[in-house]
Amino acid sequence: MIGFIRGKTIDWTEETVTIDCGGVGYELFCSSRCLDQILSLDDEVKLWVHTHVKEDAITLFGFFNKNSRELFLSLLKVNGVGPKLAQKILSGIDEMALSAAIESGNIAALTSIPKVGRKTAEQIVIALRGKVKFSEASTRSQAAPVSSLAKNHGHIYSALSNLGFSNIQINEAIGQLEDGVEVEAGIRQCLLSLNSLT
Question: Is residue 2 scored above 90 in pLDDT?
Answer without folding.
Answer: no
